[in-house]
């Protein structure tokens, strides 16, 4: 194993160059949105299979993707990029509320917030503008994206684009979000329970969006809302989905997206054949109030429900708690799957209700 500072693209490139000279590189990949542009550039330089660099950069930078989608004639929210207090103050007087204020390159809903007044817009702009680095320690440049708020349920479309340019749709994921002003994903169902015509409309919109940004290779997780006017893409993530969605796909269809991605990177045949038609879902464990985590009770009882496959807590005692503002505030999850949608969703809901987030007693004053 080699250690390298992944925020230093030149250091990563030098490391890979050395390994290539030694004949030790079969493929390059990353599971993190933050490093897709770096991997794409290095892979292109060495002739390795990966997404083309221009598409990788466009997907990584939300306002660049917005511009490409608009240029292709695809519907989208009104958007503005602001980088100064004066620009924020001017926009606050003209933009239509509610709107969404977010960083141009983050993940897990970090920093994404709905604002309803000029004062809220300015306050959240200042919060984002003052950040010197994102959650991975990469330098930021003070730019903030402001978009019109999209009404309607949110979904994601999971795809795989093969080396011949053919994009396969694995399915549509239903998303459940936290209450405003944040947009934390609290659960997913795969596949979404949709009439065929609505499903096709979402899939067609995503395929058009992938074409607009030049997406030519690998997995994509495209977030999209079904507004009263039709589907509108929120963002295209050039990677496998997070939030355990690949596991939901595997439980539902039998397709192992991780194995498929690795086969693709290595030039092997890729098998995306569905071998079953089950329903799978995930529900995330969160805290309703601030405090300090002591334990999560009820895991054994929740695990015994018929279609529950996993109950997991991935935060340790002592973790600071708050009502969810980003994906980092989730404490764990419940996954259920089976042939009957009603039973699967019901078991997941019951399992979640059996889990109790116990908080540590407040420390006595010194």
Number of helices, where a helix is a run of at least 4 consecutive DSSP H or I residues: 11
CATH classification, class level of the largest domain: Alpha Beta
Placed side by side, the strands forming the largest sheet appear as 9-8-5-6-7-10-14-12
User: Distance between termini?
Assistant: 46 Å
Query: What's the number of structural domains?
Result: 4
- The percent range for strand residues is 25-35%
Q: Which regions are unreliable across 5 or more consecutive residues at pLDDT < 50? A: none
How many individual β-strands?
Answer: 15
**What's the main sheet like?**
8 strands, antiparallel
Molecular structure report:
The chain is of the alpha+beta class. The protein has four domains: about 10-60, no CATH class; about 75-150, Dna Ligase, domain 1 (2-Layer Sandwich); about 155-265, ATP-grasp fold, B domain (D-amino Acid Aminotransferase, Chain A, domain 1), CATH 3.30.470.20; about 280-360, ATP-grasp fold, B domain (D-amino Acid Aminotransferase, Chain A, domain 1), CATH 3.30.470. About 30% of the residues lie in helices and about 25% in strands. It has eleven helices and 15 strands. The protein has helices at about 10-20, 35-45, 55-60, 60-70, 85-90, 120-130, 195-210, 245-255, 255-265, 300-305, 340-355; strands at about 80, 100, 115, 145-150, 155-160, 165-175, 185-190, 220-225, 230-235, 280-285, 290-295, 310-315, 320, 330-340, 355-360. Strands 9-8-5-6-7-10-14-12 form an eight-stranded antiparallel β-sheet, sandwiched between helices. Strand 6 and strand 7 (about 185-190) form a beta hairpin. Helix 3 (about 55-60) crosses helix 4. The chain is globular, with a radius of gyration of 21 Å. The model has no long low-confidence stretch (mean pLDDT about 95). InterPro entries: ATP-dep_AA_Ligase, ATP-grasp, CPAse_ATP-bd, LAL_C2. Pfam families: ATP-grasp_4 (PF13535), LAL_C2 (PF18603). Keywords: ATP-binding, Ligase, Lyase, Nucleotide-binding.
